[in-house]
Amino acid sequence: MSDATQSGPVLAADGTPLKRSLNRALRRQKMRALMLIAPLLLFILLAFILPIADMLWRSVENQIVSETLPRTTVALADYDAESGEVPGDAVFEAAYYDIFIAAERKLHTRLGTRLNYEMTGASSLFRKSGRGLDDIGEVYQDQFEDLDENWDEAEPWAELMGDADWLAEQRAWQKGARQPEFEVRSDIAALLPRTAEQYTVFARFQQVEEDKSPLREEPWTAVFTALYEDLAETDVSGYSGPRADMLKAADALVDSPDFETVRLQDAFGDIDKDWLTPEIWQTIKIYSPDLTNGYFLNAVDMQNAPDGAEFRDEDERIYGLLFKRTMFMSLVITFSCIMLAYPIAYLLSNLPARTANLLMILVLLPFWTSLLVRTSAWKVMLQQQGVINDVLVWLGLVDDANRLIMMNNQFGTIVAMTHILLPFMILPMYSVMSTIPTTYVRASKSLGATNWTTFWRVYFPQSVPGIGAGSILVFILAIGYYITPAIVGGTTGTFISNRIAYHIQSSLNWGLAAALGTILLAAVLILYWAYDRIVGIDNVKLGG
User: Fold this and answer.
1) What percent of the residues of the chain are helix, what percent strand, and what percent coil, each to the nearest 5?
2) N or C: which end of the chain has fewer CB within 10 A?
């Protein structure tokens, strides 16, 4: 054999280098394996990872303030929130246009709801302002229209503000077709910047959201306010474009001493006196960034203030109490399940298989019954006129006038949830205990050990993995339960999960609900980590 042949690559049967052929075969195997698990990965992504990611995002997302009040948030940048005074006229002007536009788009109530989480009364304040700001612009609108009826028409406005090419295209537009996007004339935008901005917003709103032509719709009253402010500051005597005479006459009217004006700060105060207090402006400024820690602060009974985070008043601190109660009651329920499940699992694992299988049906029977039915049954059993109290009164153990209160409190929640979660503790214990060799117990007794010593030194250590598996399962299920505590827990037996459900379903404060859920998730992960450090997660088994 030649040296060239000996030094060449080893070839496969098809003449391909063996190394390349093996790599290709391995890639095909990996692709087949990936295709097999792809449905499971997709399910985990859609049902587990994405919801958690969305929850984490909602807990810090705060774009509604900056998107709804873009001009106001910029104007408040230099406002000293700790001064104890209201901001200047520039902020009120920015707020006027922002809230007016938000009201036209039906967004002001959403913003009010968001700020109402931080300042009580903000929701009604924005709702009232959305209706009241129209009156400010009507003061100017009426005077301009009295001067020249063309100010009351849509087309003269479009001719004054619109680009010539856009005007031609818009006049040729037919209903049902796509409208040409409004373009403001460059010279008028430089001459009347506020008016150009507000009219552009109005025109594009009519085109996109109302599917109407700006040539047929009279501008908003805010456009008249902007026109007054521009004319009060600008000399239009050199303007010679479309509708020049109309604009110059309006300028002369504004300069006349008889022209009626409105100070925006006073107008806001007439709508609601809260606009003249610093609290609302402090709240807007604090929550103007796109990301906020406010939800997490609320979740731990704190709040953002002008000088930093601070605890809420004593009578407003509820979430710390709920977290402590949730952890405490979940631990009590887990311990109760261990105490009840251990002897049952021990009995099932040491009975003949036929008898154990029959008894196992009784353990599984609750899974075939509705959770709501089981919880409602405990409500019937535990109430003061219920079965348990009736039996105790009949036996003479309890006086009829002093029946036990076992529902709408922590006791009722613990009893009902222990019953519901008990099978989740029995099954892991039974699966582990059934694999413990009986020869170990017999060998211990044959060497002279007592029954207790045999159990404690030989049997119990081998059953600990089942206890660990059941405890983790029951504890994690317990801290997330909300149906049972809601039915039998009353005011003192509810969990933090009930509050999360309330914010999702009733108050619609999804950000706070997400923050509470994130904290609960973090607490579970920390406890899981602590369990791994103390007991060792490798010691948790479900059998085998």
Assistant:
1) 70, 5, 25
2) N
CA distance 167 to 449: 102
User: Using CB atoms within 10 A of its CB, is residue 464 exposed (0-12), middle (13-18) or buried (19+)?
Assistant: middle
Residues 6+ apart with CB under 8 A from 150: 156, 243, 246
Quote the pLDDT of residue 48: 85
* Owner of token pair 């902020």: 91
DSSP letter assigned to residue 201: H
What element of type H or E holds 304? Answer: strand 302-305
Percentage of residues in the chain having pLDDT higher than 90:
52
The pLDDT value recorded for residue 492 is 86
pLDDT tens for each residue of 40-56: 889 888 888 998 898 88
Q: How far apart are the C-alpha atoms of 192 and 183, rounded to whole Å?
A: 15
* 11: confidence class by pLDDT, cuts 50, 70, 90: low
pLDDT at res. 33:
85
Phi, psi of 215 (to 5 degrees): -75, -15
User: What are the angstrom distances between the C-alpha of 490 and each of 74, 309, 503?
Assistant: 47, 32, 18
In angstroms, the Cα distances linking 107 to 110, 362, 527 are 5, 56, 42
Q: Are strands 302-305 and 308-311 parallel, antiparallel or unpaired?
A: antiparallel
Q: Torsion over CA of 377, 382, 383 and 388, rounded to 10 degrees?
A: 110
Residue 541 has pLDDT above 60, yes or no: no
Average pLDDT score over residue span 365-388:
87
Nearest Cα residue to 511 out of 50, 52, 60, 51: 60
Which has the closest alpha carbon to 280: 78, 130, 126, 136?
126
pLDDT confidence tier of residue 81, bands split at 50, 70 and 90: confident
Token pair, residue 19, equals 């190394």
d(CA 317, CA 299): 9
Which domains occur in the chain, in start order?
63-292 (no CATH), 319-539 (1.10.3720.10)
Angle formed by the axes of helices 264-271 and 134-147, nearest 10°: 130
For residue 26, count other CB atoms closer than 10 A to its CB.
10
Tokens read off for 437:
């060799």
